[in-house]
Design a protein that fits this description.
19 helices, TIM Barrel, alpha/beta, Immunoglobulin-like, about 35% helix, binds calcium ion
């Protein structure tokens, strides 16, 4: 992260325009004067205004080199094509690393990149290889090296709940069962792979099981689909294979893994899943002590909290993300004080509960991902709410995740998985590495917030808002590392107020979750200064004397006066 911030800060200081700060800042000695914000805004192009704001933000500080960073989820297929076949690939990702660095991203999560029979590649047929459509192992090594040189960490999807049905383990197991005389018990010495999966003999096919073709009376568990046979975590031999896979990639230089479908290891059995997660964490840590794991546990708050008993580094915060998570619910209740006031309370409650079960936990907030669609669609394609949703996510503690294209306010053409995974919108004309849509994907009729190319030069774009939000987060590590508590005195009407504390550091984040501007009385906070502000509409966040002015959906970060 330090390298990222150094490079960013160097770039920004070259662009620095003395005496300007879009954030606004009155008489705070830590914040450069905003002299004639309006005049300055008129004299420079819009994009320059963002650059100036970024330069000011970078002066605030920088994040330590740990896992509390902004991670960016990439579906390689749809991200960037480097060789003209219109399917995204690893060299395409490499070609956009400077772009990601400029956004402030400190880590990338690669969705599965192994050989697979499906476009999404969640049914893996070889865990220690790269899908030829995406490139070669050399490309992968190149990607790791290029990320290392930029201070960007790489985690990869690890699909352990199931393999692909074309994986050699499954094919050998099926072929053995086909050869088995009716009624005979399998001999694991003759075919150890039978033990790798959940095969049963039964009169009728149990729920979530599938018949083994050519072996009457035999069934296997395929929770997600027949092409995704579930593995048997009770098998020591299977676990030894999984350990070998983890070692292979950790030794290749990945920082860790995103653990797919952790609640389905033993479907419906939380205790057992917690034990598997504990084993995975311990196994990976034994291979690489500094590894970082984040699990997908798509569960309600109470159940998800229980999973932290496993000691897992991190779990995606489903209760806050997604189209029915806390962030979206609060935004849908924008302007309603009784809804808005619950946001800060919920942040404190979640942190307390997760921390109780794992004191070293790192939260993983996210808004959207490849399974849930696009944030702009959840808020009625409203650019203001799309932006504030981004800040609400990025200003949560932990490792904040951004799904590719979210920083552009991309929308979906349909409610289905392929449409959630549409090509990254580099530009309107569809070149610059734009890929073909994945099979079954419906593209939207239009992207109301535009492509990266169109948004880059627009200070009011979602993209430039994201850049500033990420920059603030990176410059003030108390935002990502701090323990959140409700700042009850300020958490009133439609302003959400959260204090964060981390070692001797603290900050207060205020968000105006309303489309009307508002003033906040800070007379009890005379020792606090406005460090940074975020505006969804170009109207500045300012502090004049004891009055903090928050425009519609505006955000302010206060820090103690040094
Ligand atoms: Ca390609
Ligand atoms: Ca399973």
């Amino acid at each position: 992260m330090k390298k990222v911030m150094k490079a960013l800060s160097l770039l920004l200081s070259m662009l620095l325009f003395a005496g300007c700060a879009a954030a606004g800042g009155e008489s705070d000695p830590s914040v450069p004067e905003v002299s004639g914000t309006e005049g300055a805004a008129q004299s420079v192009s819009k994009a320059e205004k963002t650059e100036q704001a970024l330069a000011e933000i970078a002066k605030l500080g920088q994040s330590p080199d740990d896992d509390y960073r902004v991670w960016y989820e990439i579906f390689v297929y749809s991200y960037c094509d480097s060789d003209g076949d219109e399917i995204g690939d690893l060299q395409g990702v490499i070609s956009k690393l400077d772009e990601l660095q400029a956004l402030g991203v400190g880590g990338i999560w690669l969705m599965p990149i192994h050989p697979s029979t499906s476009y999404h590649k969640y049914n893996v047929t070889d865990y220690e290889a790269i899908d030829p459509a995406y490139g070669t192992m050399e490309d992968f090594e190149d990607l790791i090296a290029q990320c290392n040189s930029r201070g960007i960490k790489v985690i990869m999807d690890l699909v352990l709940n199931h393999t692909g049905s074309e994986h050699t383990w499954f094919k050998q197991a099926v072929s053995y069962l086909q050869s088995l005389p009716e009624g005979a018990e399998p001999d694991l010495e003759a075919c150890p792979y039978v033990d790798y999966y959940n095969f049963v003999q039964a009169e009728e096919c149990p729920v979530t099981y599938c018949p083994v073709s050519g072996a009457p009376g035999w069934f296997y568990e395929g929770h997600f689909s027949p092409e995704m046979p579930d593995v048997n975590f009770g098998s020591e031999s299977l676990r030894a294979e999984l350990e070998k896979i983890m070692a292979f990639w950790l030794n290749k230089g990945v920082a860790g893994f995103r653990l797919d479908a952790a609640k389905e290891f033993y479907s419906g059995k939380t205790e057992e899943n917690v034990q598997v997660l504990r084993w995975i964490q311990q196994t990976a840590t034994a291979i690489k002590p500094e590894c970082y794991l984040v699990a997908e546990v798509w569960e309600s708050f109470d159940t998800l909290t229980q999973y932290y008993e496993s000691g897992i580094n991190s779990i995606f915060n489903y209760p806050f993300g997604n189209n029915n998570g806390k962030i979206i619910k609060v935004l849908q209740g924008a302007g309603n004080a009784s809804v808005v006031s619950t946001y800060a309370t919920a942040l404190e409650k979640a942190d307390t509960a997760y921390r109780r079960n794992n004191p070293g936990y790192i939260d993983s907030p996210f808004l959207s991902n490849h399974d849930v669609g696009r944030i702009a669609g959840f808020v009625g394609r409203d650019p203001a709410k799309t932006k504030l949703a981004g800040a609400m996510n990025l200003f949560m503690s932990g490792s904040a995740y951004v799904y590719y294209g979210e920083e552009l306010g991309m929308v979906c053409g349909a409610i289905d998985d392929p449409s959630y995974r549409a090509p990254m919108l580099w530009n309107e004309s569809g070149d610059q590495g734009m890929t073909q849509p994945p099979p079954g994907c419906t593209l939207p009729e239009e992207y109301p917030m535009g492509s990266l190319e169109r948004q880059r030069g627009d200070d009011d774009s979602v993209y430039n808002y994201y850049r500033q939000a990420i920059a603030i987060r990176n410059a003030l590590p108390v935002i990502s590392h701090g323990t959140p508590t409700v700042e009850a005195t300020l958490n009133t009407l439609c302003v959400s107020a959260v204090r964060k504390t981390w070692n001797d550091d603290s900050c207060i984040i205020l968000m105006n979750i309303d489309d009307a501007e508002t003033d906040v009385d800070l007379s009890d906070y005379s020792d606090w200064v406005l460090a940074a502000g975020l505006s969804v509409n170009g109207n500045a966040v300012t502090k004049q004397g004891d009055t903090l002015h928050l425009p519609a959906f505006g955000t302010a970060v206060l820090i103690p006066q040094k």
